[in-house]
Specification:
Subcellular location: Cell membrane
Shape: globular
Number of domains: 2
CATH topology of the largest domain: Tetracycline Repressor, domain 2
Distance between the termini: 53 Å
Largest sheet: none
Catalytic activity: heme b + (2E,6E)-farnesyl diphosphate + H2O = Fe(II)-heme o + diphosphate
Oligomer: single chain
EC number: 2.5.1.141
Protein name: Protoheme IX farnesyltransferase
InterPro entries: Protohaem_IX_farnesylTrfase (IPR006369), UbiA_prenyltransferase (IPR000537), UbiA_prenylTrfase_CS (IPR030470), UbiA_sf (IPR044878)
Length: about 300
């Protein structure tokens, strides 16, 4: 059913629910959740210590539910701007398939459940860390800063970078330098990833009134920021090998992909102003996803192999 049909039907019969199970799954932002799961599992397995497998599974499930709950709260609050933007107009709330109240209740329920579940399965420090992460994303970023500053992505990126630290805390009861490095990789990756997207989605963000960096500071400044953050990211991406919790395969791959990341960011830096095709930015955006998933996947595989050989 199209967004227009859904809106018309809801207007004609305001009590009707048009939601299907897939709509509530969409509220969880499954693509974002897949990243959260990957990074959380990596943090969980990289952490020193041991948890009962069942409690470990429940802890990781709680972190995933927390990410999904905060995603639903984000969609609830951002329904007005999602309705304006082409790439988000079909989401469950702006399309009318899920009511705003339904999305809010769903997001709050999952968020509260996730925190309680993590506290019972692991420890209350990790649970408090998860609660802080949810509040940081849903309140501080979504409600507070997303519509007010061009640095919204930098600040909001912290929320997406916390899951490996939360998982580490679930195992150890605290955090460490290694877990902070995992956080820092995601944190520094977020700006070049999303600013590359913002370069070729400027009209969408402009129509919604979101002060993304290209709309506020211009394309040239954005390209410089992308290159600068990439230069910061690449050496940090190699740190797990330097610190000894990433193996030689990770070291080689992280360096090779990092150098390619710099090359691609340089091509974006050299783009002409108002390039209608934005090919380098689109390619960088796609590559950035491969880069992050590759780094955490290799760390995860190396850790699984190491545990299997013990």
């Amino acid at each position: 059913m199209s967004a227009i049909d859904a809106t018309d039907l809801r207007a004609a019969r305001p009590g009707i629910s048009l939601a299907e199970p897939g709509d509530f799954l969409a509220l969880l932002k499954p693509r974002v959740m897949s990243l959260v799961i990957l990074t959380a599992v990596t943090g969980y397995l990289a952490a020193p210590g041991h948890m009962h497998p069942v409690l470990g599974f429940v802890s990781l499930l709680a972190i995933a539910l927390g990410a999904g709950g905060s995603g639903a709260l984000n969609m609830w609050y951002d329904a007005d701007i999602d309705r304006v933007m082409k790439r988000t107009a079909g989401r469950p709330v702006p399309s009318g398939r899920v009511s705003a109240g339904g999305a809010l209740a769903f997001g709050l329920s999952l968020s509260i459940l996730s925190v309680i579940l993590l506290g019972l399965a692991s420890n209350w420090f990790a649970a408090a860390f998860l609660a802080f992460t949810i509040a940081f994303y849903a309140v501080f970023y979504t409600m507070g800063l997303k519509r007010r500053t061009a640095q919204n992505i930098v600040i909001g990126g912290a929320a997406g970078a916390f899951p490996p630290m939360v998982a580490w805390a679930a195992v150890t009861g605290g955090v460490s330098l290694e877990s902070f490095v995992l956080f820092l990789i995601i944190f520094l990756w977020t700006p070049p990833h999303f600013w590359a997207l913002a370069l070729f989605k400027m009209q969408d963000y402009g129509a919604a009134g979101i002060p993304m960096l290209p709309n506020v500071a211009g394309e040239r400044s954005t390209r410089r920021h992308i290159f600068a953050y990439t230069l910061l990211l690449v050496p940090v991406g190699v740190l797990p090998y330097v610190l000894g919790f990433g193996g030689p395969v990770y070291g080689v791959v992280s360096l090779a992909l990092g150098l390619d990341f710099i090359r691609r960011a340089f091509l974006v830096l050299r783009m002409p102003d108002r390039d209608p095709a934005m090919v380098p930015a689109k390619k960088l955006f796609g590559f950035s996803i491969v880069y992050l998933f590759a780094l955490f996947s290799i760390l995860l595989i190396e850790r699984v192999v190491a545990l299997w050989m013990v």
